[in-house]
Amino acid sequence: MAWIIAGLTLAVATQTTAGPDPERLAVAFAVAGICLVSAGLPDRLVSVTAAGALSVAAAIVVRTGTDVLLWISLALAAALVLGGLWLTVWHLRGSNRGVRLVLGLLMLGSGLLLALFNRQVISLGLTLIGVLVVAVLVVGLYRAWQDHDPSEHLGLVTVVRAAETWLAERPADADDPAAVRRKLLFEGRERRRRTIRFTMLMVFASAIASLGVLTDSTAVVIGAMLIAPLLTPLMGMSLSLVSGWARPLADTALVALLGIVVAIVVGFLLSAAGGQGVDVATNGQITSRVSPTLLDLGIAMFAGAAGAYALSRQDVADSLPGVAIAIALVPPLTVIGIALEQGEVGDALGATLLFVTNALAILVLGAVTFVLTGSAVAARPSEDGPDVRTWALGVAALGVVVFGGLALNGFLQNTQSLIEADVAEATLQWLADHEDLELDEVVLDGGQIIVVLTGPTEPRNVEVLVTEAEAVSPDTFEIDVRLNVQQRLSGDP
Q1: CA distances from 217 to 208, 224, 286, 455 (A)
Q2: How confident is the model at residue 263 (pLDDT cuts 50, 70, 90)?
Q3: Which of 209, 245, 387, 489 fits as disulfide partner to 240, beta carbons 3.0 to 4.6 Å?
Q4: pLDDT top residue among 487 and 340
Q5: How far apart are CA 241 and CA 438, in angstroms?
C-alpha cells in the first residue's frame, strides 16, 4: 500500500507545461525509499542501497530542482540522434533496409523531440511510470491476496511476481477471442454487407455532426458520436496489429480510410450548402477541436483502453456508447471539412491533429488492452509478420510526430497565457490611477496584444500603458488599446 502511495505521488508530480514539480517529485522518491527499507526487496543490503540512492535523488531534486533530469534527458536525446544517424546514414546495407530506415528516422525524431520538449516528455514519462507502478501493484496485491495467506508477509517481489503471473494467464481467461475478431474485422462473406452498412452509418453520423457543428449544438454532436461506427475499424486495426494479422490489418485500414474521407467530404459539402454566416473564430464546436494539447492525448488513451476492454468483455459492452462520446472521432473530421470550405487551413490542421491523436491512442492502448484481456494472443495465426512490423514502426513514427505537435501546441498556448497574464498585470497597475476605467480583457491575436478597457471617457496617458505593456511582452508583438465607452443617461423623472 505504501508503494501505491509512492506511485500516485509520482504520477501527480508533473506540470505538463512547466515540467515536473520538484517538491512532489522529491516526496515520491522519499516515500519509495522508505518503502524499500520497510517492506521492499528480500535482500536487505540491496534494499538499503536502493533506498539510499532514492534519498540522494530526492535531496538533489530539492537542492537543484529538475535541472538534473533535464541534463539527463538532453544526454539521452543526443544518444538517440547519434543512433538514428548511424542507422540511416552508415548502416543501411543488407536486408530489411526499409525497416532500418524507418527505425533510424524514428530515433532521430524521438531525439529531436526530447531535446526540444524535454520538460513535457519528462512530465509525461513520470506520469506513465507512476500509473504503471500503481496498476502493477494493485493487480499484484489482488492476486497475491488470493494465492497467499492474508496474514503472511507480502513483500514487493511477491506482489510483482503475482502481477506477472496474472498477465501470463490472461489469454486463458478471454471470453471469446474469435467473437472479438468477428466483431471488429471486415472479412469473409459478410465483408461487403458490413462495409455498406458502415458507409451508410458514416454518412448519417457525419451529416448530424456537421449540422451540430454549424449550429454550435453540443447535444446534436453527441448524438452523432453515438451512431458513428469509425471506432470499429480502428479497433480492428489495433487487434490485427498486435496479433500479427497482416492482411486483416490492411483491409480494416482501408475501411477506416473510407470512413475518414466520407466524414470530411460530408462536412465540406454541408458547410458549402448551409454554412454561410458561420463564424469559425467564435463557434464553440470548432474552437474546442482545433487546438489539442497533451491533455487530449490522455483522454484518448484512457478512452481507447476502455473501448478495447468493452469489446473484449460481453458483460461490459453496454459502456461502448460512453467510449464513443469520449473518443470523439467523427466531429474533428467534419470540422476539417468545414474549416477547409471556409478557407481556414490552420483550423483544419488543428482538427487533423486532434483526430490523429485520438486514432493513435486507440491503436496503441487498444493493442495493449487486447493483450491484457487475452483477445489478441489466444487467436494468433501462423502468418508472416514483416508487414505488421513495418506498420508498428509507422505507428511509432506517427506517435513521435503527434506528440511533437501536441507538445508544441501546448507550449504555444502556455506562452500565450503567460504573455496575456503579464500584460493584464501591467494594465491593472496602470489602472490604479484611473478609477473610472475597468479592464475588460487581454487577448493575443496574431501579432497584436489587444487590451480592451471599459469606461465613460477616453483614458489619459494611454502612451504610458502602451510602454508598460511593451516592457513585459515580446518585441515582436504590437500593443493595441481599445475602449468600450459606457454612455450614462440622466434626466428628470
Answers
A1: 10, 11, 11, 35
A2: very high
A3: 245
A4: 340
A5: 58
